[in-house]
Design goal:
The chain is an alpha/beta fold. It contains 4 helices and 5 strands. It has a single domain, classed as Transcription Regulator spoIIAA. Helix 3 links the parallel strand 4 and strand 5. The longest helix has 18 residues. It holds the Pfam family STAS.
């Protein structure tokens, strides 16, 4: 699980892209992003999330988002991306869902 904070913008994406790919390559094709401390997301970060989910699904994995709120959740809803990503209220909800699979 990764829990970025603050703004997910072009600058954050530059810092996060390689560590995220490293997590996937090193720990498998399942990734949970806790967005509870993220107050802003821009199109660059949305693009990264879309690329990540496709990268993970190509490896029979998935990307789960935890607790997006405010502007972040609005952007995900407006772009209809809540249909692409499993979105959960908490990490325990993610783990419960994984136990049912």
């Amino acid at each position: 699980m990764l829990a970025p904070r603050g703004e997910l913008d072009i600058h954050a994406v530059r810092r996060l892209r390689e560590p995220l790919i490293g997590l996937i390559e090193g720990h498998g094709p399942w990734l949970v992003l806790d967005l509870s401390e993220v107050g802003f997301i821009d199109t660059t970060a949305v693009g990264l999330l879309v690329r990540l989910v496709h990268h993970l699904r190509d490896r029979n994995g998935d990307l789960a988002l935890v607790a997006p709120h405010g502007q972040v959740l609005r952007i995900l809803r407006w772009t209809n991306l809540t249909c692409l990503f499993p979105v959960f209220d908490s990490l325990s909800d993610v783990l419960a869902d994984a136990g049912r699979r």
